[in-house]
Amino acid sequence: MAIEVRPITATLGAEVSGVDMADLSGETLEQLRKAWLDHKVLVLRDQHISVEEHVAFGRRFGDLEVHPFAVGKKGYPEIVKIKSTAEYQYAANNWHSDVTWRAEPSMGSILRGVVIPPAGGDTCFADAGAAYQRLSQEWKDRVDPLFAIHDFSMTFGQRLSEEERAEKQALYPPARHPVIRTHPETGQRTVYTNRSFVREIEGCAPEESAEIVGHLERQIMNPSAQCRIRWSVDTFVMWDNRAVQHFATDDFWPETRHVERVTVVGDAPF
Predict the structure, then answer these.
(1) Per residue in 135-161, pLDDT tens?
(2) Which residues are designated catalytic?
């Protein structure tokens, strides 16, 4: 049976129905893969599946990573638990792609709504290919040959002691990625810098690095390149980290927001 795909915008995001994540046939999987490449962000609602089925669904798309810094779910190392409460407020409220500090950053992420506030807590997505296309030719020529140095300590280092930071740096040294990467399956050129993890633009002074990262982020921040997802319990959102960036809003305090993610291993950007 064919799945139904309803686009959210002309180029970014789609609501998908006709899929049972716990019982995915080979034909449905291929339709879902194609829809993911075409729309970059897919929303699957009312998927009342177990934690084990969430993990198994992610594995249909590749190996799953274990995040070395984020809080995991007990008994399920592949699941990252992201929870904000009245006592501990947290949201990834900056534009980024997941784990760009890895030598081989993630291909995609699959996030589940577990506890959702009555208002707020949306996730915004930006089409990194559309952001690149919005650059002037002068800016394209400027950034096309550049590389950025991505470093986990920009975000996660503050949680670690000096000894712990040195230990993790040995395991996850700074990664060198193109400022504009090429999607390995679609060939699309996409912006691949973010303030969360980019320490510097290789060969540039700090002021020029900040100028370049800031200019590229402004293209990501253009609402015409974005879609916004409203969560509900057992809604799943899957996004292509090679094609989009995302931003979680923090407009729900003091309510609780709890989501859980599996992340599919990717390959080295080029």
Answers:
(1) 999 999 999 999 999 999 888 878 888
(2) 96, 98, 246, 261
pTM (predicted TM-score): 0.95
For the stretch 196-216, pLDDT in tens is 999 999 999 999 999 999 999
DSSP alpha helix (H) spans, 106-253: 128-133, 137-143, 162-171, 206-220
Whether 16 contacts 42, CB under 8 Å: yes
DSSP conformational letter for 209: H
Please report the DSSP string for 141-155 in residue order: HHHTT-EEEE-GGGT
Output DSSP code: residue 96: B
What is the C-alpha to C-alpha distance for residues 54 and 64, in angstroms, rounded to an integer? 11
Q: What letters, b where the CB count within 10 A reaches 16 and e where it falls short, cover 217-252?
A: bebbeeeebbbebebeebbbbbbbbbbbbbbbeeeb
